[in-house]
From TrEMBL:
One of its GO terms (biological process) is siderophore transmembrane transport. The keyword Signal applies. The lineage of its organism: unclassified sequences, metagenomes, organismal metagenomes. NCBIfam families: OMP_RagA_SusC (TIGR04056), SusC_RagA_signa (TIGR04057). One of its GO terms (molecular function) is siderophore uptake transmembrane transporter activity. Residues 87-204 form the TonB-dependent receptor plug domain. This is TonB-dependent receptor plug.
Amino acid sequence: MISAEDEQPIVGASVLLKGTQIGTITDMDGKFNLRHVPESAKTLVISYIGMQTQEAAVKPQMHITLVPDAQQIDEVVVVAYGTQKASSLTASVSSVRANALKDVPSSSFDQMLQGRASGMSVTTPSAGVGQAPVVHIRGVNSITSGTSPLYVVDGVPIQSGDLAGGVGNHNALADINPADILSIDVLKDAAAAALYGSRAANGVVLITTKSGKEGKVTVTYDGYVGFSNKTKFIDMMNAREYVDFKNMALRNAYGTDIASELPGMGFTPSVWGDKVFNLMTDSKGNVIDTDWSKTVFQNGFTQGQTVSVNGGSERVQYYVSANYNTQKGIVKGDDYKRLGGKANLTVKATDWLKLGFNGNVASSTTKQTDAARNGSNFSVGGFPRLALINAPNIPAFNEDGTPFYEQKGLGYGPNAVFNTFSNPAALLSLNNGTSVNVTRIISSFFGELSPFKGLVLKTQYSIDYSDIENRNFRSPQHGDGVNQKGYAFNVAAKNNIWTWTNTATYDFSLGNHNFNLLAGMEATETHYQYWYGERYGLTDDKFTQFEGPFTNADGGGDEDNNSMVSYFGRINYDYASKYLLSVNYRRDGFSALSRENRWGNFGGVSAAWRVSEEPFFKPLKTYVDDFKLKGSYGVVGNTNIASYASRSYYSSFYYGNNGTYFIKQIADPNLKWESSEKYDIGFSAQLLGRINVDFDYYYTKSSDLILEVPQAPSKGLPGNILTTNAGKMENKGIELTLSADIFKDGPFKWNSSFNITTTKNKVLELAGGVDNILGWDDSKLENNNITVVGKSIGQLYTHPTGGIDRETGRRIFYSPEGEKLLFDYTTDSGWIHEDGTAYEGEVKPVISGGTLPTWYGGWNNYFEYKGFDLSIFFQFSGGNKIYNGTKATVSDMRFWSNSKEVLNNYWTPERKDAMYALPVYGDNYSNGSAMALSDWIEKGDYLRLKNISLGYTFNTKKWSKAIGISKLRIYAQAQNLFVITGYSGMDPEVLTNTTNAVLSPGTDKNTLPQARTYTFGVNLSF
């Protein structure tokens, strides 16, 4: 007899012949034996606490699987420094169990959480390998000090985000094998997270990994293989369409006598009539017509294998696993590999002493083409963007199969404009790219002492250690390394975080008064150091590593330390499981702050009333099994502060071959933590033994936001700024979670769960003298976002436009006074009045819409019938605006960009309702390349079929004796099958393509769409 939840034997289950007193219980292996069964006995009744009672026909050999009973079981939820029964929770916690994620293939668990937990927004920036998702819990709570939650694995606070430091990508959370995870609990309000104090402003995610269980040894294998491809791409012109279109744009700009204008355009003068762009042919006379997407994209492949062993006795329990995961991305050159292992050992040395070890090790490598990332409109490094901008009349390969390097094909041979051409095939063959190698160890040792009933003393020492090596190479032959004559960059970094935690918990009762007390002390130290070297001028281009014969070299490094000491406590109280109260407190001291401000106090209080336990509620018990009202308030902080933020310090450089010092930073001795006040009120209910409802209203006010405040030049401060506490911001919204066992008693079972979260963000205050904060993109050539008081953070900031003028085909702009203007590239002024006269004023950008989703969630349906199981999961998000910068990329009126949408929808006298302006060569204003246009703003609402999985679990009772198989399940799964959206870009799941996901969200600049993946897997236990 096993549990359907974890396939482990059930010890002590009752087995009774129906209508008799004949029965027994299961042994340590989940087995039972009934002798002298009357011939009249036809049915067994099997029952166990927390499981649904089953009836089964009597057979000589039986294999029984018990299913958890949501009505009976009081689920245990992991909370800060402990666990708690769900019925006694007074705070706001969302839980995700391993079963919900079992068929979601991913190298990182954070990507699997999208849409699974209310209040938790997970955005995957693109389909590139190694990218860390952007996670927000109940909105954005900071402007400059980080918005990611704190992640704690088995009590160990760990690093999150991108470990690559801007050179390539490496998601820190991918170092944890998803198959080793048992549960994930998200602490959302201050009452739940307050025990993490200054690190809890953005919420806390608690990950509990699998551990050994008392019973026989169980060997489990989980494996899958998957195949992926891009979900959507833009249709491009062929070579003849491209040449004709660009030549037409030249005629619209310069008339028919194009040759006279060639020198000013950067072309070599020649007399070729009115044609500048020409078709190319090979030696056989075939026209060159290149589909650049074939040089950039490929079919991806992923596979994951995990083998685990667990078991134990009354005194010793263990869990050991090994895993191997690889991923070949849908972009050529994208590659990820991870080899890892885990060990969890618990030893009950005596009746009063328990010892344990929990360790995780991972070694991984992420490889990418020279920034196989999302490029900005002007970035030549964004590898997927090359499929959008390269001219189809240029070959990718020479006739001998080697990549084409020559800068020819635009009619007049090499010229200044064409020097930005990058051939993806050449970049790949020349090994242009990055690799990130990470070795990561997360481990802890603990001792637990129980001197008498109710009291537990625990000490735990943990480390999170990372050894990181980044390599970047650019060939001198082609691409971004040409001007540098070859370039290599290496970084070696080490990051070590140790934490020592000591706690004492005491549980006791006085009649109906029940208490749980916690007191603790924690010390943490972070030590980070790195060394880097960069070299230019490669004399032998056969070398592709830093060690090659370069002529110039540079190097440097840094070391960083900070530490924190904390004292904390919690009181949980309930009266007869009816009236519940929890009080939390933590005091943190952080070395990054000045002596006057390094200590901070944080805490929370929450209460709940189980109304359903009152006598007056009894008449409703037929319909409402449980009903609880709850509320909380607390203050938490944000400790994402540079280690020396409150200090003045110098930096150095060479001037005239002499070492020189300069003031790098002036201290603000009053600098302190950002803090967040959090309020929460809600209820939870269980109806008819099969429906569960959770509702919360939340409000968060973040104060003392750290901002750069302008200073008078006379003060002589570096950059004329001072970093200080100056801003305020709020987030508010509601969360609703519904789950129902629509059918649960017969052979057909159907569970449906739905969650939705709304959030509204508003900036309440910026620093004195700061009217706005601009969010620049990586290229610094374009600004699409602005943050101002009274609006949500990262508003779109675009120039007001009104489509295309029907009579002239010119883009319509609006002046600050609201006057309609036209843009004419052929005039000196550019902007003209409707009567054709020059406009002498300035066209300015305006606030154009919020970029943060105001609602998001997920809907899952799980079906089960006679061994078959089917899961269908939808994820949705909306209420936000997206700037479709890809439209600017593909409609650029210079030599690059060749979208068929532009070809089929540009203005002509016969097509006056067109989307795109009259093509005029060189005009990068009317399409949005030179400035963001409001015409390219679209709604970001979408509904995505995120996962669908079909599995079958075999009846293994015939194989159990012969070959020892206790479970065999096979499944097929599809991810990102389709998306319903009004957004015209490649993917509406857009956060940002820049390094600043907070100040510059909602901008789609050639975003790589999510990959569609088909997976086949097997779960096997012995």
